[in-house]
Amino acid sequence: MSGRFAPYGWSLLLHGVLVALLGVSLHAPSPRPQAVAPAEVEPIQARAVDEAQVQAEVQRLRDEARRQQQQEEARRKQLQDEAQRARETRQREEQRAAELKRRAAEEQKQRAAAEQERKAKEAAEQKRLAELKQAQAEAEKKRVAEEKRAAELAAQRKQEEDARKKAAAEVELKAKMAEAQRQMEAEAQKRAQERARQNATLVQQYIADIRNKVERNWLRPPTARPGMTCTVLVQQLPTGDVVGVRITRGSGDAVFDRAVENAVHKASPLPPPPVPEIWEREIEFIFEAR
Fold first, then answer.
1. Closest by Cα among 280, 96, 104, 88 to 203
2. Do the Cβ atoms of 230 and 285 come closer than 8 Å?
3. If you write DSSP's letter for every residue of 55-80 in order, what string do you get?
4. Domain locations in the chain as residue ranges
């Protein structure tokens, strides 16, 4: 502030000096009247000139002070305007900073809300997937248990059915075997009693009848050639039903031998013997292609 008001101080000081000088000149004691020659009028004119100069100087100083005051006022107004603009600029900057801060806070809030929503959705999705996975696991476990139970029931039913069939087959087989054994024993006893009386011709005729029937049921394979032979052992029941066929001596052609086996099965029941006494459970004969 001392720098701002320095011109006013100097102006006041200068005005004070001029006023003091003027007062001294105006209040100085008048000299006693003396006879003055015409040439002594000069000091009065000098004082008048000095007063005019002082007035002019005072006016100049006043003008200079007024000019400096105006400049100072203008400078003060300029500083005030600059301060006002600075305050307005600062206020705008503060408002802008506050707005930016508010926007940043709002964006942060929105990002936090979005992140929270994302996490909530992610947690919900994870929960849904976990529940779905658990449901699938339970369904798979239930399916496996049901399949296991069904397999166990099926195995149990099959086992029971197999046991029933096996028992029935064993009973039937035992019955057949018992019947066959009985028949065999009876026939063996008869054969033992009547073998001596059997006629070899009848036996050959019996075998010839069997061979003829087998030939009638024989389908000639392409590999068969005239003169090919194989020895066949036939197991039969007293009714003539064939229960077994075996090639005891093959022809060397498997197709030929298998065709003969099929023919024997097709020929069942075999022709009865001319007399019961020559019946044999096992008949062996030679089959020859013609």
1. 280
2. no
3. HHHHHHHHHHHHHHHHHHHHHHHHHH
4. 200-288
What is the CATH code for 200-288?
3.30.1150.10
For the record, the structure tokens of 208 come out as: 């010839």
Q: What is the pLDDT along the chain (290 residues), one digit of tens a residue?
A: 555 545 556 566 666 656 566 555 544 455 554 544 544 545 556 666 688 988 898 899 999 999 999 999 999 999 898 989 979 978 898 888 679 789 967 888 989 666 899 996 887 789 997 698 996 869 699 897 789 985 698 668 899 897 689 867 687 878 687 584 888 787 767 766 755 665 789 999 999 999 999 999 999 999 999 999 999 999 999 999 999 999 999 999 999 999 999 999 999 999 999 998 899 999 999 999 98
End-to-end C-alpha distance for the chain, whole angstroms: 157
Task: Quote the CA–CA distance of 164 and 145 in Å, as a whole number.
Answer: 28
Supply 231's token pair. 């020895």
Q: What is the rounded distance in angstroms from the CA atom of residue 10 to the CA atom of residue 15?
A: 8
- Return d(Cα 86, Cα 108) in angstroms, integer: 32
Distance CA 97, CA 110 (A): 19
Kindly tell me the sign of the dihedral angle through the C-alpha atoms of 142, 146, 152, 153. Answer: positive
Quote the strand ranges of 40-198, DSSP E: none
Runs of H (alpha helix) within 1-41 = 6-26
Cα–Cα dist 2/23, whole Å: 30
Name residue, tokens 């239930």: 142
Find, among 280, 286, 279, 249, the residue nearest to 264 by Cα.
286
Kindly state the helix (H) or strand (E) to which residue 199 belongs, with its residue range. Answer: none
Question: What is the DSSP secondary structure assignment for residue 197, as one 8-state letter?
Answer: G
CB atoms within 10 A of CB 58: 15
Strand partners of residue 232: 247, 285
pTM for the predicted model, two decimal places: 0.34
